[in-house]
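Treating backbone geometry as a discrete language has practical consequences that deserve illustration. The amino acid sequence and the backbone structure tokens for this protein are reproduced below.
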Amino acid sequence: MPNRRRQPRPVGLLFLACVILSVMSGDARCEGFLDVYGGWVVDSRADVSVSETRSSGTTTAVASGELTSSAAFGARMGAWHPTYSWLGLGMDLGYLDAKGSGLGAKIFPISLFLAARAPLFATSEFPSGRLQPYAMGGLTIPVIDISVEVNGIGGSSTLGCLPLGYGGCDDTVVAPYLVAGVAWQPARNLALFAEYRHSQFSANFDTTNSFLFPTMNGRVDVSFSTEHVILGISYRFATGGAGTLRDSQQTGPPGR
């Protein structure tokens, strides 16, 4: 099977997001969070089109159908705004192994997102609410190690860019990051959450049997669509600004 590999290079946008996120997370007034999650695919599909051109002509093949996949898992970090605590920013690093007829792909989604939440059942101990419905939207740049073969033709490639990688990045894959869920805080620094995710993206690359004297050139086009149900646990870094001020006022020496 013809192959073509590319090494990823830095992505300035994601690197800048890491810096901003680190600053926000280090601000004592912000409520930071660190999530660990796992889940399963409830619906997934791929449409594949491949072609090969030789001196004898062009051969094409198409295939489509459901994908089987291992459980999705990953980690997410972020922080809520110190003033507008319903608004947040974060980054998500995940993994998914998608397989189907003639298709195998190891997918590493790297996502930057904005988040919004609703504080329900808020108390003095839980000012952001014990129950927090939320939505997240942003951009995913997945790194994909993909191999495709339909009717004996196809190819393999590594597509995408790592935030701190190197090399060429001509085949960057971009996808939306769309999440809706609900979190419940049984304790001040702990939350449990469940969410639904939708992901859709395309992976396209050229193939050849030789870079010096090719006798065959080809093209692979793959379109993915997946739906996930995710369960996870979140550690919340409690805010320290306002609470510390109130405590210092209460524990200070009594006025005369």
